[in-house]
Design goal:
heterodimer, A: 288 residues, mainly alpha, B: 293 residues, 12 helices
Chain lengths: 288, 293
């Protein structure tokens, strides 16, 4: 015998109050709702406080948006302003800064990575000290490093290379040491049991495991450093950012758009090449 | 040993030659790789105008610079020395708070925008390809243009001050978080959505009751990670006049107020490390929550 849908619905609605009463604790989510509300009020309150402290005003937002729309109109069509050769050379300089900075950082961080790894240096004071040292370096933004190096070696791309090398040195040291710590111990035991020294253990037991990881990390940082290298010119440390900051200051919006497009294209190309290489590397590791 | 020596000469020679050939091939590849790396380095060094001699000369200047920015602290007058080093502690603390608020507001506004856009950019929720394409490209442009470039433009449009910094960070955060959020959304379990749709729920209801509970812990974790990054970003916004502690730092560096440089740098480092440690705790708890579900 079939029950009609209408009957079914009527039965369900009749049973609903009883079910609500029986499983009140399960069905009510008042505690959760209260917590959520409290969180939202706190977040919203802090946001309001921030807006007051930071001097937000609707008038400025509206006039600013109007001016931005004006800039956007001035941007088209993008134009080189007759400086194409200069811009291309600066772009090459940017890539060179990223490449040399990453390479220097990787070479310097490689031995430090071993020092900061718990399974290589069992002395907790050494790796704790090295880790905190690396954290300190990492806490300083690349633009700050650039500003400091500009003061030391003068304006130009050389300061940019040193800035990128410094800021990456901290990150690489940490990442390398983590890669080394997660390496499998068994190959090392194998080398040691065959009569190898501790150094042989590191060379033939750990190094082959960590090199692909390190390689892919270095490539990944090269990608992100291409982005960093485009902006360190703002403080005078070479690369395309020098021109970008200058053209923005004199409101040559057509050239600004051209430079931004150039950066976007260059970054996209580097991403493409390096993600290919990284996949090849990780693939090689998976196969071996 | 006797087993090895019992191999015939001919067999041993062929094995050795195969082994040597393999080793030689590997070595050749290594040398080629190193040659490419070194060649590129030389080319890059020539492009970027690197003079190693200049570096050797300047290394001394770097160490002397470090020596100059370090404060003059002695044990006898330690407390008064520290007080002299941090002579403008109140002012710098105010700027630090401003930096943190810039990062907070930028992350919040950018996170909200990313939250709204990410559902449009997720291929499993939006079958409309042109709309998805537009959302994805918008996020990509916001992500790829560095926040400091936005800040340079916004300082001119909105005037000097922290508001330009907040908007610049918010715009960049929209791009960065939008991509991560969209990836989270693309990896969800689709069955709850089918359940809501089958029970007669609309698209918005499906998002609210089927998607949100799955993605919120991950969203919060990514947003916190971004907050960490944005604190660093906000600390340099002052370089282009967009508010925060960077303003004081750039003045100190440019005007050669040596001990101020180290004082402000130390404050920035301590803040960044404290924020890192704090958010790391919260993130681990969030991810733990998700694992318990």
């Amino acid at each position: 015998m079939l029950i009609s849908p209408q009957d079914l619905q009527r039965d369900a609605e009749a049973a609903l109050p009883r079910l609500r009463q029986q499983h009140a604790a399960l069905l009510s989510n008042r505690a959760q709702a209260n917590r959520l509300l409290l969180g939202l009020v706190l977040a919203g309150g802090l946001a309001l406080f921030a807006m007051v402290w930071l001097d937000f005003s609707l008038v400025r937002v509206v006039t600013g948006l109007g001016r931005l729309a004006g800039f956007a109109g001035m941007m088209f069509p993008p134009s080189t302003g007759g400086h194409l050769a200069t811009y291309l050379q600066s772009m090459a300089e940017t890539l060179a800064i990223a490449y040399l900075g990453t390479l220097t950082a990787a070479i310097l961080a490689f031995p430090i990575g071993f020092l900061a790894a718990r399974n290589v240096i069992p002395n907790p004071f050494v790796h704790f000290g090295v880790r905190r040292f690396l954290d300190t370096i990492r806490g300083v933004d690349v633009l700050i490093w650039a500003l400091i190096w500009v003061n030391v070696v003068g304006l130009g791309p050389f300061a940019g290379i040193l800035a990128i090398a410094c800021s990456d040195f901290g990150s690489f040291g940490k990442l390398f040491s983590e890669a080394i710590e997660t390496a499998d111990r068994k190959p090392v035991e194998g080398v040691l049991s065959a009569g190898g020294s501790a150094l042989h253990g590191h060379r033939f037991g750990i190094l082959p495991q960590v090199l692909p990881v390190i390689g892919s990390q270095v490539l990944y940082f090269f990608e992100s450093n291409t982005r960093s290298a485009t902006i360190i010119g703002i403080v005078g440390a070479g690369g395309i950012g020098v021109h970008l900051a200058e053209q923005i200051r004199v409101l040559e919006m057509q050239q600004v758009l051209f430079l931004i497009l150039m950066i976007l294209i260059a970054v996209a190309l580097i991403d493409l090449v390096s993600s290919r290489l990284r996949h090849a590397m990780i693939g090689a590791r998976a196969n071996s | 040993m006797s087993v090895v020596s019992s191999l015939s000469d001919e067999r041993r020679r062929s094995l050795t030659s195969v082994y040597d050939e393999a080793v030689r091939g590997k070595r050749r590849r290594l040398i080629l790789f190193l040659a490419v790396v070194v060649g590129l380095a030389i080319l890059a060094g020539w492009t970027a105008d690197v003079r190693l001699l200049a570096l050797a000369e300047n290394i001394g200047r770097f160490t002397s610079y470090i020596g100059r920015i370090l404060p003059d602290l002695s044990f006898a007058t330690f407390f008064s020395d520290v007080a002299a080093w941090y002579w403008d502690f109140g002012g710098w603390l105010g700027l630090l708070v401003e930096t943190l608020l810039i990062a907070y507001l930028g992350t919040l506004l950018g996170g909200l925008a990313a939250f709204l856009l990410c559902f449009l950019a997720a291929s499993n929720l939006v079958p409309n390809a042109p709309l998805r394409f537009a959302a994805k490209r918008t996020l990509e442009v916001c992500r790829t243009v560095p926040e400091i470039v936005f800040a340079l433009l916004f300082v001119i449009a909105f005037g000097l001050g922290p508001m330009a910094g907040v908007l610049a960070i918010a715009l960049h955060t929209t791009g960065a978080l939008g991509k991560l959020f969209a990836e989270v959304v693309e990896n969800i379990d689709m069955k709850p959505i089918e359940g809501v749709r089958a029970a007669g729920g609309s698209w918005v209801q499906a998002i609210r009751y089927a998607v949100l509970p799955q993605v919120l812990p991950n969203f919060a974790s990514y947003a916190l990670l971004r907050f960490e990054i944005n604190v660093r970003g906000a600390s340099v916004m002052g370089f282009v006049g967009a508010g925060g502690i960077g303003q004081a730092l750039v003045t100190a560096i440019r005007q050669f107020y040596y001990s101020d440089v180290s004082a402000i740098l130390l404050l920035i480092i301590l803040t960044v490390v404290a924020i890192d440690l704090g958010t790391e705790r919260v993130r681990h708890r969030l991810i733990g929550l998700q694992g318990a579900h």
